[in-house]
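COURSE: Structural Biology Practicum
ASSIGNMENT: Worksheet 4, Part C
STUDENT ID: 0417
INSTRUCTIONS: Below are two proteins. For each, the amino acid sequence is given first, followed by its structure token string. Answer the questions at the end about the second protein only.

PROTEIN I
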Amino acid sequence: MLTTGIPSYRLPREVINKEIEALIDKNITLKTNSVLGRDFTVDELFEQGYNAVFLAMGAHKSKLLNIEGEDLDGVYPAIEFLKEFNLHGKNLAKDVLV
């Protein structure tokens, strides 16, 4: 969410990368793109010798406001808009109102 929800001019990607690098060391194993229950279980991780497990679930989904017009063409949920702009450099419209 730091890279998708916050523009790089407000939170430079170098700062995010340095913070992540400071957290990840020989005592921490980062596993990504894995599904709990399919790729691993918490019990299996403890059996493999891990002393602690932190599960961070992706939550990249906008919450609809249930207001008139939010389903019209050209109206984008916040996370969808921010992902396209921040990850792919795509501006979904010429003029944008937030």
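PROTEIN II
(use this one for the questions)
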Amino acid sequence: MKDGKFEYMNWMMTMTMSKIFLTGDFERNIDRKDWSKLSNTTKDDYLIILGDFGVLWNNDEDDSERFYKDWFNDQPWTTLFIDGNHENFYRLKQLKPIDMFDSIVGKISNSIYYLYRGEVYTINNLKFLCMGGATSIDRHMRIDGVSWWKEEIPTYHEFDRCMANAIKHAYVDYILTHTLPYNAILSMDFSYIPCSVSKFLSNLAPMIKCKRWFSGHFHINKSYEKYQILYDEVLQLC
């Protein structure tokens, strides 16, 4: 009887547990992705975008921003995102931090939240270490404070917080970053100039273990060993 009750409780927990999906860069391109996997979701389910969310793009809210925020707010799921290199970091800094997932997040709306750099979040009893940022290779074509922000590279404080959490936890279920460790990038045969973020992640990788490491940034769907890059693919975590 006790064993049966235990199995029933586990079954109930599984039935009520929310679903988690991952995808790559959004960059204000709704048509890029096949959203059909998310059709049977609720606000208790989560889509995590792996950087370059880009909805907060101009220094002040405008009609285009309202359109994209309304679009995400109208979807059945809740959207979470880490930052990439193509973000307005001035706007991200203005977000109100609130307690969520055993840490803090930046709130855009009741359906859209920003996952801060270096934090560990507990979602569905799974632990996620998040670290945004990367170098824009096209920054010479962009305008400082208008289409490019130097804060795309994390501060020493953000690097230190991420490393401290990696050492503290030693193991998380998943690591979510925008770019990848430089040694992993080389193993995938990408022609890529190393940046301070990818170098930092190479130093971070030996400090913490995970089931799988996900990133966006490279505009391709590709996997190598424990690393997986997502672009237009929408992936549901088992």
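ANSWER KEY EXCERPT:
Q1: The first strand starts at residue 20 and ends at 23.
Q2: Confidence is low (pLDDT under 50) at residues 6-15.
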